[in-house]
Amino acid sequence: MKFCPQALVASLSLVLFAAAPLPGHGGFYRGPGTTKPPRAGAGVTSGPKQPGTPGTQGNQGGAPISFDDAWYIWWEYNKDGYLYRDRLSANEVEAVGGTKGTGPRAALKRSYVEQTVIPLLTQVLEKGSNNRELISGSLIALARLKPKDDVIPTIARYLAENQEFSETAALALGISGSKAALPILLSLATDDKEGAKATGQDRVHYRTRSFALYGLGIWCQQHDDNYQKLKLLPMLFKILGKESRRRDKNLRQDTEVAALQALRLLSPSSGDTSGELLRRDTIEFLLDYVGKSDKQATLLRSHAVSALGGVLGRHEDPTGKTMNVLLDILGDRRAQAWVHQSAVMSLGRIGREDDKELLKRLDLYMRKGKDRHARHLASISIGRIGSDAARELLLKRLPKAKTQDRTWIALGLGVLDDVRRTRSGSRTADKTIGDSLLNVARKVKMKANRSGLAIALGIQGYRPSAPMISAWIQPSIKTLFNAYFAESLGLLGAKGAQGTIRNLADESVRHPAVFSKAVLALGLLRDPAVAPFLVDQLRSQNSALVQASLAQALGNVGGEREADQLVEIVGDRKQRDLVRGFAAVALGLMGEPTKLPWHYRLSSGINYLAQTETLVGGGNGVLE
Questions:
Q1: Is 267 in contact with 221 (CB distance < 8 Å)?
Q2: Which long-range contacts (CB under 8 A, 24 or more apart) does 434-440 make?
Q3: Are 287 and 308 in contact (CB under 8 A)?
Q4: Residues 123, 126, 131, 132: what is their CA dihedral angle, to the nearest 10 degrees?
Q5: Mean pLDDT for the stretch of residues 524-543
Q6: What SS3 state is found at 249?
Q7: What is the pLDDT of residues 438-486, one digit of tens each?
Q8: What is the number of other CB atoms lying within 10 angstroms of the CB of residue 180?
Q9: How far is Cα 241 from Cα 190, in angstroms, rounded to an integer?
Q10: Labelling 519: which of 304, 356, 434, 478 has CA 20 to 30 A away?
Q11: Whole-angstrom distance, CA of residue 442 vs CA of residue 304
């Protein structure tokens, strides 16, 4: 694979996407244009546009898309379940909303991870450093590798370091899934004496406490012990109770949102009494919490509504009330936009194929609902229902819809076809849906909308669309639209487009959002020349954003040959700490044994517009 040498000598400080935050905890980087400060529950109107987001002036993308309502924001928070679909069972795909993909992550052998990578990262943390990329990257990487319990004290010691290290360590404890981490997480979450002692402070900082709660939810996702999870409920209910808000001066909305996310991620296992009790008790609490509309802040209520969909899923509702409560919210014009958005998403997660009334209500909201973004999310929720009636409805709405509405309906059709194929076990895309999307795509001129249609076709896996999408790529223009075209081709398995995508990678080395997606697409297509190039670039680049995109790409395509080189980089104390840190990130991604990245269960189905600084929106949240 030959990459353009001129791109390597260009100044990497001139990043096109100037609005992008620095890579967050552990080098996690979702990409620019995915967050902005929240607007107090306001509905989606035109909204201010950030430089560097698709559709803004200077990106040559055509008419602007409102930031709050951009389809690509939904995609960024939900795409991992689609990219890694082939790693999942049919039931798991149904739970997380996955779609067609070839599973690009190349896991390292467990023996290599245990004998080489875990000891190396443990040694780095034991020696210590003040460099944020090296320590944060190593903490999360080590946790991703699921070390044995004896490594947990090495992670926990960073709770008493600076604030970034402290909250990253709390998160890492949850990601590790270690049973030895659970008592520490509980002490941090409840801000008890042991938790304060672990952080070296009189009280546990609200950010560390919030990250411990996010970590607790992620920990629960890795365990099937319903009885243990039942014992966590009183603690979470207490944090969210009226008395805590009145008496606990260290309690912030961030902490309450994190507790709601922990409830959403409890993931009760089916088939035993404790699992049914866990689901029932959690849903009853959330219904009561949501019902106190006059006493709960809009932000908290919106996350509680999202949690209802996450806990119930497609299971029988033990209360028989959840569907009606969510539908009542849709009919309440007084409810704030965030709450409507969360209700629409939850309805898509709990809706049954035979529920004609639900389909009718979602269609009505899609056409006439109060909030524009919730209207567009209704297209996705209809797709998730996956029934024949839902298929006919979206096909009927597609050709007559307004331009931006049409993009969302197209995404809904892509999701719907995947849901149906997953349920039936078929690998053949629905030709009627594919041809309908192709006909619309051929007439679209704006790149912003073209790229959304390309992703819809990629989700669907409709391969006849590949030549058209490949022809849309213009490597010399560094926009996210080109990147999404490449990502779509990767989902489609379009090996004939490898040359075009390589050219895009050549031209975008110093534009991390575009470059990372181009390389990901090549990884999906199993291009063997990608990984060696990435390691060379990791050694030489100076930008943290570029390093983050390189690490993410290596995590998707690297193998043991690249792992050996990364181990050498991490262990070389003469190497720059920035490079060592992102090499550690890549090792964590490559060796992570779980089917999905740790952050996916948290990001999938979340209301990303209802923002808090520790979740998303401030540049240092758990999902940034």
A1: yes
A2: 434/460, 434/462, 434/464, 434/465, 436/395, 436/398, 436/399, 437/398, 437/410, 437/413, 437/462, 437/465, 438/462, 438/464, 438/465, 438/468, 439/399, 440/398, 440/399, 440/406, 440/410
A3: yes
A4: 90
A5: 85
A6: coil
A7: 999 999 988 888 999 999 999 999 999 999 999 999 988 878 889 999 9
A8: 16
A9: 13
A10: 434
A11: 41
Please, which residues have CB within 8 angstroms of residue 446's CB and are 6 or more apart in sequence?
A: 61, 62, 63, 403
pTM: 0.88
102 three-state secondary structure: coil
State the Cα–Cα distance between residues 86 and 104, nearest whole angstrom.
10
Radius of gyration from C-alpha coordinates of the chain: 23
Alpha-carbon distance 10 to 6, whole Å? 7
Residue pair 253/612 in contact by the 8 Å Cβ criterion: yes
Q: Can you give the three-state secondary structure of 128-158, one letter per residue? A: CCCCHHHHHHHHHHHHHCCCCHHHHHHHHHH
Contact 503, 475 (CB under 8 A): yes
CA gap 15, 17 in Å, rounded: 6
* Alpha-carbon gap, residue 358 to 350, rounded angstroms: 10
Please tell me the distance from the alpha carbon of residue 221 to that of residue 410, in angstroms, as a whole number: 31
The DSSP string of 256-313 is: HHHHHHHHHT--PPSSSHHHHHHHHHHHHHHHHHHH-TTTS-HHHHHHHHHHHHHHHT
